[in-house]
Design goal:
With 581 residues, the chain is of the alpha+beta class. It has two domains: 324 residues, no CATH class; 207 residues, no CATH class. Helix content is 13%, strand content 24%. Strands 13, 19, 21, 22, 23, 24, 26 and 27 form an eight-stranded antiparallel β-sheet that branches. It has a seven-stranded antiparallel β-sheet with strand order 3-4-5-10-9-8-7, with helices on one face. Strand 26 and strand 27 form a beta hairpin. The two termini are 30 Å apart. The N terminus and C terminus are likely disordered.
Amino acid sequence: MAFGTLATLTAGCFFAWLLAAPALAQEGKPQVAPEAASQVPAPPEAAEASTSAPASAASPTVVMTSPRVASFEVDWTAARAALGPLDQLPPPAEAADANGADALVRLNEATAKILPEGATSPVPVLLPFDMAAYVRDRAQGTTADDGKYFFDFHVPTLFYPGPTGYDAAFSVRPQDMHGVDVVFARSADIQISASTIVYELDGPLADPGAPVPSLEQDFPGIRRVILESRLRYIFTRFNIPYVVSIACNDGPKSARQLACREADQIAVRFLKDLAVVGGVPNVVPVKTAASPVEQPDAAAPDFTYNAPGDILPGTGMKGQGGRADTTVYAKIRFPMAHAPAYINSQSFMNWGNCDLTGRVALGGHGRDQSYRCRVNDVPLYNDETRNYAYPWRDNFCEHRYWEVSQCPAGLGHQGEDIRPSACKLRNEDADRCEPYQDDVVVVRDGMVLRHPGDEALYLIVDAPGERLRFRYLHMNPNMYDLAGLVSGRELHEGDVLGPVGDYGRREGGTTYHLHLDLQVLTRQGWLYVNPYMTLVSAYERLIGGRGRSVAGSASNSPPPGAIVGAGAGTEQAESKSAGKP
C-alpha cells in the first residue's frame, strides 16, 4: 500500500469540494516548472485532425476479448475435519441439515460475535485465531476482548466475504509481536485471500515460487515467492487456493521499509496461527464462463485510441515495448464522472518530466517553451493543456521502476494515467492545471482497503465469477479521510469518491490526472494486469459510441493553434460523443 504524507489543503479548493461533491499514489515525480495552475480544452476536431495517424497508415483492428478463469470446488469434508474442539460450545440454534453441516453451523454461530460475516464466506475462512481459548472463554462467558483471540495480529482491519471467497487484512507493529526480531519501525500490513476462482493470464509467466520444507508438513505443496514487491506464501487447503502476502523491500533491513527477510518472520507466524473460523457451503454454482464483450452499435464521431501495448516510442523499460493485452477484465463504470476524458502518459507528454530519463531543450518561452525526452524525438511543451486530445495512448508498461510481471521488461507503470474533460488554468500565463475541477467515481460495487492518511485507495470487488482490485492514486488523502474512505467502507458503482487531484506525496506533486490500475487474483495471488481495454470498453458505454483504433502516432499534442478558450472560465467543453453517467 502506498503511503502519502499529509499536506495542508488549499482552503478555497478544499471547502468548495466539500460543498459540491457528495459525501461520499506511485509515479508522478514533479516536472520542474512554475506551479501556477482558465479553462483551455483542445477542440476534439482540431485534436483529431492533428493527432490521427497518416492516411497511408493502416488502422489496426482490435478485438476485445474476455478473461480466462479457472474454478475450484471446496472439500467441505476436509474443512469439517479440520475444525478445532467445539465440545464446550452450545448446540446450534437450528438442527443440522442432511449433509451433517452441524459442526459448521455451530462454528459460525460461535464466531458470529467476533466475525459477523464469517458465515457468508463460500470457502473455509482461515485466520490467525486461538479457537481453543475462544471456545473455553465463551463457555465461561468471559469473551470480553475480541482482539486477544487473534494472537499478536489483533482484529482484522478488513474482512470482506463475497460470492467467490474472502479477503482479510491485518495491521501490526512488528515490535509488539512476540518472537519477532525486526528493525522496521512502522506498521506492517498482512493480507490473506482465498477464492473458488483464479484468473489464467497470458503473457509472461509469473514466478511460481520455491518450496518451503519447514512448512510442508502443515501446508503440503506450499511455495514462497517475492513478486511485485510482495512476499507471498501460496498454498492449497480444502482444494481451494490461498495466498498470504506482505508488502516488503527485497533489500537490507531498514527502519523505514520492511525488508522481505523480516516480513518472512511475520508471515510464518501468521501461517502457523491459522485456524478455520467460518464459512458455509455455497449452494450457487461457481460462475466461470465469461460473458462476451458488448460494444455500442453506433460509432463515436471522434473517439480514437491507439492499440493496447502501443506505448510512446522509446518509453518502455530496458528497450522493451508495451503489453498488447486485448482483455476486457470486467464491465465497469468509467472512473471519470463525465466525458470527454483522455488516457495518455503524464510523464512523457507535455509538462511531463520524462520519468527522469533526461530532456533536451528545443527553445521557446513560457507555455511555448519546447523540449523533448531523450528517449524519443516527440516535441513537447511546458503546457499541460496540450494533453487533452484523442487518440488515447496505453502507458501501462512505460518507463517506471515498479515491478509488473505482465510487462515484457518485468517493470513498468502498473496502470493508466487518465485526464479529465478539460484543464482550468489560474490565468492566461499559467502552464499548470488547477486541481479539484472534475469528479472521480467508483467503477464497481466493492469495499475500500485503505489506512487513514494513505494516498492509495484500493477497491476490492468480489462478484459472481469475478475477483478484482482497483487502485486509485493522486487524489487528496485528506479528502478521503474526511469522507470516511477507510478499510471496511462499502461503496457502490457510480458513487463519487472525490475530485481529480495532482497529489504526488504533496499537492502539486504531479500533473492533473488520475492513475487507475487493476489487479486480478491468480494462482500467485494479486497481480497487475493491463486495464487499457477495460477502460476503452467502459468509455464506449459512457459516451454511447464505439471507438476507432488508429495506427500509432508520434504524439497526441495538438498544435498551438488548437489551444482555445484561454481565460478563467469554468464551463466544461464536451466533444460530440460526450456523455454523462
